[in-house]
Amino acid sequence: MRAAKLFIFFLVVFTFVFLTGCFGSRETDENAFVLAMGFDKGEKDNMVVTVSIANPKVIAGMAGGAGGGAKEGGKNVIVQSVETYGPITGIEQLSTATSRHLSLLHTKAYIFSEEMAKEGLAFWFSTFSRHYELRATSYVFVCRGKAKDFLEKNQPPLEISPTKQYELIGSLSEAHGLYQNVMFKDFYQDIKSWTTQASMPLVAIHEGGLETAKPGVKKGGELTLGKYIAGEVPITGENKAQFDGTAVFREDKMVGTLNGEETRYYLMLRGQFENGYLIMLDPLVAELQGVGLIVHQARSPKYVTRINEDGSVTIDVDLYLEADLAAVLSGINYESPDNKPIIEEAFSEKIKEGCQKLIKRTQEEFKSDIFGFGQQVKGHFWTMQPWREFDWLNRYPEAQVNVTVHTRIRRTGLQLKTSPAHGGE
Amino acid sequence: MVKIIKEGTFGPGEAIILLGISNIARIFLSYPRSLVEIGGSAAWMTPLGGLAAALAGIYLMSLVLKKSPGSTIIEITEMVFGPFIGMAVNILIIAHILEMGGALFIREFSEAMLITTLRFAPISVIDAVFLAMGLLGAYLGIEALARTARLIYPYILGGLIILIFTLIPFWNFHNLLPVFGKGPKEVFLLGTYSTAGIAEIIIAGVIVQAMGGAEIFARIGYRSMLIGFAFLIITLAVLVLTYNWPISEEFTLPFLRLARTIYLGRFIQRLEAIFILVWVFVGALKIALLLYGAAVSLARSLKLPDYRPLIWPLGLAMFILGLLPLDMLAAIKLDIVYLRSFVLIPNYLLPLLILAVFWFKGRRERAGS
Q1: What is the dihedral of CA B342, B344, B348, B353, to 10 degrees?
Q2: Is B52 inside any structural domain?
Q3: For position A25, what pLDDT does the model report?
Q4: Residue B85 in domain
Q5: Which of A179, A245, B114, B364 has the fewest CB atoms found within 10 Å of its own CB?
């Protein structure tokens, strides 16, 4: 027992001597936290790496309410770029121009330019996946145009820190479904998957103003608010950054884009559509009048898959949607039990058409199963070898996919009846 | 007359928890990755055969221990094979399973610490700190270890359960398909071979008297195996549900990846620091248990009255052996390919041989009478 006491005594003494600090420890004020990273194709070297670094002086001032930093004219982020071989070499090189260690521990967004995405991203994702500072829950985006420009011009006026912007963007996608919410881990899994191909949300800087608006339904255009992709949405105002639409990948290469409306169908087919305001043409009037519905996915889609004798695959998808009546411009009393089924049927037909069109596009144009139908087909196999030999991703373009949509209008908002505008007295 | 080594005593509850925690330690290393490589989407099934084998191993060991109720596996081995062969077998077990196992365990845990938190620390320092914890634990004895295990197990098991539940939003049940992954042969045969090699059966055989004797050995053994394997199966299932198998098999430390994936909105994330504390608890307990097992076995084999003087040289040897593999990959390979295969011999073959010798001896005696 005496020896144990002696041992403990010496252990404590040595602890005091050796544990004054960890090896390689870095205090918070020795780090510069990269909040977002952008990657563009380089002209002379592989890529241009852009980092958006938190400026603690300004952020602390803004958070304190005094706006000290802002008063001094400082920006809450400092954006720096370097042309280099790869992401990690870029971080090392950028460190030569900063007084602090550049840390990726708080990086919330990795943004790849469209040009880079088209060349393939597997190599770079693999590099990051190995990096000890990576958080696989960071968000990933494809930028139309240059990621460097996006990071320089993205100044969210409502947020102190862009980190919060990217985190809120994730939850906002659930409110309208015009873009999806993809984490590093999701994309990395999909580019290595045998069942599902990858996709990423699109971001861009909108140069211009209202002139980018597309014609509405009465001027020969479409009746939808999702006809745009990031960079095209006709918005004027302080922040030029936009998030809208989806970049579609085959393996690790970007092969096309989906607009906001198509993204909604895509999310519905994946069972990830949370909520959104959708417009359709009024089925009971000849004029081009709109009916607005707030729609959400009632439950996960039901998939039934069959592998036919010739090896072809048939997939039946049943989508279950619930809607609230939000706007009826024609004034027809769609709240009545007689009229409600008419609008439900018309809406189901519209969504079905949209989904079928999108599926056809992914089969013929992209040749990419971004919906993850392969996950359902995989269930027909007991082991992995036959599943691999089945080569689903190459069979997908020939698969027969049938979509059925079931819509139920559950609520009619704060109004239970629509009276005609002239028939009240 | 050799003085009996004082080991202390503890209840069956403490024994179950001590052996269970020691068994759980492997999920914190890169071991689950190797099982995903074997089973693919059916990785979670790979330990099922190992569990059955471990339960059978416990049963066989209990049969052996019941042949001489006051002894441990060390004395019984000598009794059956004679003083020379018996001692040689015992020393082989001590050197390979307990000593080498402890050394590789220290190395792998230290490498894990280097990768996760202490990136710039010299490996020898981390090794030494782990060893110091192990030395202290082994010196204080098995009773202290068992009671410590009992004290910290709510935190360890609680941490694991929190991990499992907080990852539910990321689960994709389709990741578990095809049901039999890389094939029944790989999942059940190779899986059993890879998961049945655990040091806890032989350790239990060494500390049987402190646990309460041969009578309750099987009860303690079965339960601790169920705990250890249940957590391995759950960890593998959660890993494949959260990340599909093609990338799960890429991870150096799958458990760390899982802990770093926890993201319940903006406020509940970055919980891995808590899990690193759990790792250290488990790692220290396991190292102390292996060192204690090695010292006590050697003392019993050499008929020494006290095991404690052996802790220092065995600890030093463990430290040096742990530093011998050139790199982390070599240490992992030694553990998975060499050590886990070798451990099958004392776990399963040795008790069978001992039982066979008892049976032959009994038959001869019966024939003689």
Answers
A1: -20
A2: yes
A3: 73
A4: yes
A5: B364
Domain ranges (residues) in chain A: 28-258, 261-414
**A22 chain-B contacts, CB cut-off 8 A:** 117-118, 121
Find the closest chain A residue to B126 by CA distance: A23
Question: What CATH number should be reported for the domain holding residue B24?
Answer: 1.20.1740.10
pLDDT score for B163: 83
Class of domain A261-414 as given by CATH: alpha beta
B361 domain residue, yes or no: no
The continuous run of DSSP H or E covering B54 comes out as helix B46-67
Q: How far is CA B240 from the centre of its chain?
A: 23
Which residue ranges of chain B lie beneath pLDDT 70? Answer: 1-6, 369
First to last CA, chain B: 32
Helix (H) or strand (E) holding A53: strand A47-54
Cα–Cα dist A407/A294, whole Å: 12
Q: Chain B within 8 Å of A1 (Cβ-Cβ)?
A: no
Residue A61 per-residue DSSP state:
H
Separation in Å, CA of B244 to nearest CA in chain A: 7
Q: Is B247 close to A188, i.e. CB distance below 8 A?
A: yes
Dist. CA B145–CA B5, nearest whole Å: 17
Overall number of domains in chain B: 1
Range of the domain at B315: 12-355
No. of helices (H) and no. of strands (E), chain A: 14, 13
CB atoms within 10 A of CB B156: 22
Nearest CA of chain A to the CA of B263: how many Å?
7
Residues 6+ apart with CB under 8 A from B359: none
Q: Does residue A372 sit at the B interface (CB-CB below 8 Å)?
A: yes
In total, the C-beta contacts within 8 angstroms joining chain A to chain B are 85
Please give the Cα distance from A172 to B256 (Å, whole number). 29
Question: What's A364's DSSP letter?
Answer: I
Say what the pLDDT of residue A69 is.
44
pLDDT at A76: 80
Rounded Cα distance, B322 and B103, in Å: 4
CB contact under 8 A, B246 and A192: yes
pLDDT at B4: 58
> CA A134, A140, A146 angle in degrees (round to 5)?
115
Q: Compute mean pLDDT per 10 residues along chain A, 425 residues long, and list them.
A: 84 75 74 92 90 82 52 74 91 87 90 94 89 89 93 81 78 87 93 93 88 77 79 84 92 94 94 90 80 90 93 94 86 83 91 95 94 94 93 93 93 79 56
Q: For residue A67, what pLDDT is reported?
A: 45
Query: Are B182 and A384 a contacting pair at CB < 8 A?
Result: yes
pTM of the model: 0.90
Question: Has residue B47 been placed in a domain?
Answer: yes
Q: Kindly report the backbone phi and psi dihedral angles of residue B187, in degrees, each rounded to the nearest multiple of 5, phi listed first.
A: -65, -45
Give the pLDDT score at A18.
Answer: 66
DSSP state of B164: H
Say if residues A148 and A48 touch (Cβ distance below 8 Å): yes
